[in-house]
Design brief:
Among the domains are: 277 residues, Rossmann fold, CATH 3.40.50; 130 residues, ANL, C-terminal domain (GMP Synthetase, Chain A, domain 3). 32% of the residues lie in helices and 24% in strands. Helix 8 crosses helix 9. It is globular and about 75 Å long. It binds 5'-O-[(S)-ethoxy(hydroxy)phosphoryl]adenosine. The site of 5'-O-[(S)-ethoxy(hydroxy)phosphoryl]adenosine has 23 residues, from helix 12, strand 20, strand 25 and strand 26.
Length: 651
């Protein structure tokens, strides 16, 4: 946060068209929620969801923090995203897909409805997938990822999408944790101009401990030669053609789980974040309208992968719930050149473009001149998500991509929050580069201390949400205790535990919220959230490694990079170091995926530990940044270790 930041006001043109036109309208909504919290959510739920059966209670707090919303109500999320649009929008494009090689496919609402129904019937009839069964989806960015997710929603199966960049071991852990009955995957896809394979990763994953999986369904995408296990593996494209395009949408309870999505925490294994039906879809829909100001004729493009929450909410569920057109791109954003995305913005006349600061920095660096080659005048709103955006990248995005005319919505939220929590409203909020600005109406996000006192401007505090909200995480799959201890143990307001995000934040004098980053041991590399504990566990598996500590180091391009301190076993360390570096990265790729590879590995004689054995990560973070150590080191078990580490890092 800097004192001299410039404020950018919404233009008259943007404001005039906007769903929320000025700060008064925003304040009115906030006030409505403040005066009658349940009444506010009740109104939104009644106005925006096509209920099969009405709910009888808006918010049930009896079993806090296991909050329930809209209990007794019945709905179906696939119906909400598809069927209800068939009357007015059946021939409107729902998904515009572009493959990396340049192949295109447009699915209208009617066509998508057909495909989803056929797939739903296939899952139900042939594979006996029932309501509540878990289906793991490990897919590239192709329309079938969306189709299979919606097919699950239609029959009430719980999908768990695993990012295609995760390794077979990471996939295996998630399959086992969810006790998935089925895995849906593809032979492979295209990346950097070449076909790559996904199916062999599934084969590898299912080799051990995955007896729960009865069948594997394979979508043919790149036609590469893959192995088929008879009796387990089936080709989607052949089977789906025999299914009927008529499939009743299963009436689901508001609180039935819609999906699981695994995310990293500060300790141990990834957490299966469980989301609900009604609360999730309601907020996906509201934020599309408010934050992205979605209009009937808009074409919306979110460049995330469906394997992350951003892809779930803002490629699939949000845009379709409001009857919009969503763009989906398969491949690498800089293939065949750094103008790829801008060429697509021009071609599809994209209105809203939503991406991560990492990608903005990359495109700025490798292709600053590219945008000038394309007509980007269709753009009306730009968005960012995943990490704080630095003023340089912000200004380039604003001026060069947005032509100094498009507001940037810097959206703060998390896998656990389901949808945006803190964000500017494009027609209303004066924006400051780098600030996510204010909480959305109905969202009680506050910067507080452990006792619930609101922090004064300039004082860092915990970013908490002090009231439950409909799209919040319901629990951690199979581990309710971890849910409570992870999210509801850091701060209390009026004696009641409140949701803590894991992020720190600070208000400025005008009440703008500035996110200062994670306060736990989670790092954010290129917008990918990873637990240092997970990476440490992987590195710890290398035979020659005695001890390891991983910290995040600020990085100009990726936001943070993975910095590992490694203590080797035995004496002849010099000889070992060379091959250990390779082995470490091999093992990380195998156990997590290439996204978690270490950018720097430093061999050190020991780690700074307190007498009780706790690693002082603060010191390691400072050392990684090359800072002077000002902390008191006298409480360390070995106070000389810091000098020794510094000396070994200089070698
Ligand atoms: C970070 C992604 C600053 C934050 C939707 C959060 C951000 C974590 C922003 C969640 C933002 C997300 N400004 N930091 N606009 N958006 N973050 O679960 O640390 O992958 O806790 O969800 O990303 O990451 P996740």
């Amino acid at each position: 946060m800097s004192e001299s930041v410039q404020t950018f006001f919404p233009s008259r043109e943007v404001a005039r068209r906007a769903n929320i036109k000025n700060m008064c309208e925003y304040q009115d909504l906030r006030l409505e929620a403040e005066e009658n919290y349940e009444g506010f959510w009740d109104r939104l739920a009644r106005e925006n969801i096509d209920w099969f059966e009405p709910y009888n209670k808006v918010l049930d707090e009896a079993n806090a923090p296991f909050y329930k919303w809209f209990t007794g109500g019945k709905l179906n999320v696939a119906h909400q995203c598809l069927d209800r649009h068939l009357k007015d929008r059946k021939n409107k494009a729902a998904i515009i897909f572009e493959g990396e090689p340049g192949d295109k496919r447009v699915l209208t609402y009617l066509e998508l409805h057909y495909e989803v129904n056929k797939t739903a019937n296939l899952l139900k009839n042939k594979f006996k997938i029932q309501k509540g069964d878990r289906v793991v989806i490990y897919m590239p960015m192709i329309p079938e990822a969306a189709i299979t997710m919606l097919a699950c929603a239609r029959i009430g199966a719980i999908h768990s999408v695993v990012f295609g960049g995760f390794s077979s071991e990471a996939l295996r852990d998630r399959v086992i944790d969810a006790k998935a009955k089925m895995v849906i995957t593809a032979d492979g896809a295209y990346r950097r101009g070449k076909p790559y394979l996904l199916k062999p990763m599934v084969d590898e994953a299912l080799k051990e401990g995955c007896e729960c999986v009865e069948s594997v369904l394979i979508v043919e995408r790149n036609g590469q030669d893959i192995d088929y296990v008879p009796g387990r593996d089936y080709v989607y494209n052949e089977l789906v053609e025999n299914e009927s395009p008529v499939c009743e949408a299963e009436p689901m309870e508001s609180e039935d789980p819609l999906f699981l999505l695994y995310t990293s925490g500060s300790t141990g294994k990834p957490k299966g974040v469980q989301h609900s039906q009604a609360g999730y879809i309601l907020w996906a829909q509201m934020t599309m309208k408010w934050v992205f100001d979605m209009k009937e004729s808009d074409t919306f493009w979110c460049t995330a992968d469906v394997g992350w929450i951003t892809g779930h909410t803002y490629i699939l569920y949000g845009p379709l719930a409001v009857g919009g057109t969503t763009v989906m791109y398969e491949g690498v954003p800089v293939y065949p050149d750094a103008g790829r995305l801008w060429r697509m913005v021009e071609e599809y006349k994209v209105d809203q473009f939503y991406t991560a600061p990492t990608l903005i920095r990359l495109l700025h660096k490798v292709g600053a001149d590219e945008p000038a080659k394309y007509d980007l005048s269709s753009l009306r709103i730009l968005g960012t998500v995943g990490e704080p955006i630095n003023p340089d990248a912000w200004m380039w995005y604003y001026d060069t991509i947005g032509g100094s005319r498009c507001p940037i919505v810097d959206t703060w939220w998390q896998t656990e929050t389901g949808g945006h929590m803190i964000s500017p409203l494009p027609g209303a909020t004066p924006i400051k580069p780098g600030s996510a600005t204010f909480p959305l109406p109905g969202i009680c996000a506050e910067v507080i201390d452990e006792e619930g006192n609101k922090k004064a401007p300039g004082e860092k505090g915990l970013l908490c949400v002090t009231k439950p909200w409909p799209s919040m995480i319901r629990t951690i799959w199979g581990d309710p205790d971890r849910f409570e201890s992870s999210y509801f143990s850091a701060a209390k307001v009026d004696g009641k535990p409140v949701y803590f995000s894991g992020d720190g934040a600070v208000y400025d004098e005008e009440g703008y919220i500035w996110i200062t980053g994670r306060v736990d041991d989670v790092i954010n590399v290129s917008g990918h959230r990873m637990g240092t504990a997970e990476i440490e566990a992987a590195i710890g598996n290398c035979e020659k490694v005695a001890e390891v500590a991983v910290v995040g180091k600020p990085d100009a391009l990726k936001g943070e990079s993975v910095f590992a301190y490694v203590v080797l076993k035995g004496e002849d360390t010099l000889i070992k170091e060379m091959d250990v570096v390779q082995e470490i990265n091999k093992v990380i790729t195998k156990e997590i995926g290439p996204i978690a590879k270490a950018d720097a590995i430093k061999f050190v004689p020991g780690l700074p530990k307190t007498r009780s054995g706790k690693i002082m990560r603060r010191i390691l973070r400072s050392l990684a940044k090359g800072e002077e150590i000002t902390q008191d080191v006298s409480t360390l078990e070995d106070p000389t270790i810091v000098d020794k580490i510094q000396a070994s890092m200089k070698e």
